[in-house]
Amino acid sequence: MASADPTNEMAHFSLGKAYLDSGRHAEAARSFERCVELAPDMSKAFQLAGQAMIGAGWADRAVDVLTRGYETAARKGDMMPRNAMADLLRSIGREPP
Question: Is 97 inside any structural domain?
C-alpha cells in the first residue's frame, strides 16, 4: 500500500505498525518517519517512531523525534501520546521539554 501510494500517510503508519508489531524496529522507524513527514501533526506517529527507534538502538535519533512529537502533542492537546512520549524520553535518560 505504501509503495503504491507513497504520499499516503496512513499507508506508512499502517506499515510501520505492522513492522513494529513484528519486531522489525528499523523498518518501523523509517515508515513512521515518512508518516511524520507527510502528516507533521500526527502525534501517535511521532510516539511510535520514537518507540521503534529506541527498539532499533537509535536512542539519539529518538530524542529528536520524541521531543518534536511531545511538543506537537502538547500543542494539540493529545495527552495520551504526549504522556507516552514523556515516558519514552525518560526511559532513555532524557526529560521531556
Answer: no
